[in-house]
Design brief:
Strand content: 5-15%
Order of helices and strands: EEHHHEEEHEHEHEHHHHHHHHEHEHH
Number of strands: 10
Distance between the termini: 37 Å
Structural class: alpha/beta
Shape: globular
Largest sheet: 10 strands, mixed
């Protein structure tokens, strides 16, 4: 990776180009060639994790057909920068619109994602006219890598919860000379985005720094067992989401339990084995994309899926990205004050948001339920994602 020389102090915004040393790629190729695959368990199905047969095929594609240099070049087509905030290196994409009145929009990814999640929406958001939209719908987009993720990693000190990340994001936007902007996020980003509004003191009144918060994901999923009367008051769709929330806690909570308690123990394997890192991420990509019966590489694209994994592998950030969950676990379940900022939520079919619970922490002015798509909204359903972002912010510019 290369950067220009920083001559203006820690607040500098340093142009950044991804340039992975060939030695790293050669090492990866050797590791992939020497992979020892585990003996398949009975049935070799997704019920116990990534099937060995599927993993073998995906690794063969990674080893023989995947072209990192082509993907690296595609990533470098977007303006990228580094800056240091609170002693932490922060990497971000910053793509300005050609439209003078474009609204700045800060987008935050989650785990096990990266800035890769948003690549298909950058063009439509920044240049709406070229994608059948109106110039008045244009955004400048800022897409940071979360602290501890990819080129924003590793982390060097404690305390990287959502509130601290929000404080750093607010400082990043100040350094970009944006004093009025929108925020968007899913997964971890769905916690960070409203926290930016709280950090900046935005309250939805004219002149607020954050003019609107747009979220996707599991917004307002109940954290307690509902009684019969409360269940009866829900719609059929909401009751199904409550059911799926319960299934998640019973069957799929294991990754959170590990990452939030023993991230270093887990990362000892992931940092040494690219196939281990691939399987850990792909297991969740399969569980959280929609529909589940379709293989994740068919939904997300094989090259894009592998590029997302590469950003973890090449930067050795399995531990530091998990550490965000380790730190955040200390405040799980704590009630947060509603931001007062207009908030739009889009819930795709694979997620479990419920409005009445979400309204306890968000001033919701727009709620959209979609019968397709999963947890990785901008990646899986870029057209629907862009349309909803445009619609939500149309009255907030």
């Amino acid at each position: 990776m290369t950067t220009t020389t920083d001559t203006s102090g820690s607040a500098a915004l340093i142009p950044f180009t991804i340039d992975i040393p060939q030695a790293q790629l050669d090492d990866l190729a050797q590791r992939l060639a020497r992979t020892r695959f585990t003996t398949p368990l009975p049935g070799d199905s997704w019920a116990t994790g990534v099937p060995t047969s599927y993993l073998r095929d995906l690794v063969a594609t990674w080893r023989d057909d995947y072209d990192w240099r082509a993907q690296e070049s595609a990533l470098n087509a977007y303006p990228q920068f580094l800056t240091d905030i609170e002693g932490q290196r922060i990497h971000f994409l910053h793509v300005r619109s050609r439209e003078a009145d474009a609204l700045p929009l800060l987008l935050t990814h989650g785990w096990p994602g990266s800035v890769v999640e948003f690549l298909d929406v950058v063009g439509p958001l920044t240049d709406p006219v070229a994608y059948g939209g109106d110039a008045a719908q244009a955004f400048d987009v800022v897409i940071p890598s979360l602290p501890g993720f990819a080129f924003s990693g590793p982390v060097h000190d404690e305390g990287w919860n959502e509130a601290r990340i929000a404080r750093v994001w607010a400082e990043l936007m100040r350094r970009l000379d944006y004093d009025r902007y929108g925020v968007q996020g899913g997964d971890i980003g769905a916690g960070v985005a409203p926290a930016v509004a709280r950090e900046t003191g935005s309250d939805g009144t004219p002149g607020s720094t954050v003019v609107g918060v747009h979220l996707n994901g599991n917004i307002g999923a109940p954290t307690y067992e509902l009684g019969e009367d409360e269940l009866a008051s829900l719609t059929d769709l909401e009751r199904d989401r409550v059911r799926r929330t319960g299934e998640f806690m019973q069957e799929h909570f294991g990754y959170i339990a590990i990452q939030s308690t023993r991230p270093t123990a887990l990362a000892a394997g992931l940092a040494d084995s690219p196939v281990g890192q691939l399987a850990w991420i792909v297991d969740k990509l399969r569980e959280w994309t929609y529909p589940r019966e379709v293989l994740p590489d068919e939904i997300l694209g094989t090259d894009r899926l592998l590029t997302n994994v590469m950003l973890y592998w090449l930067t050795d950030t399995a531990a530091s990205s998990a550490y965000v969950g380790y730190v955040s676990a200390q405040s799980w379940g704590e009630a947060l004050p509603a931001t007062g900022v207009p908030t739009g939520v889009i819930v795709f079919a694979g997620d479990v948001g419920i409005r009445r619970f979400a309204e306890k922490e968000h001033a919701i002015t727009r709620w959209v339920d979609v019968d397709r798509g999963g947890h990785f909204a901008a990646w899986e359903e870029p057209v629907a994602f862009v349309e909803d972002v445009r619609a939500f912010f149309s009255d907030l510019r």
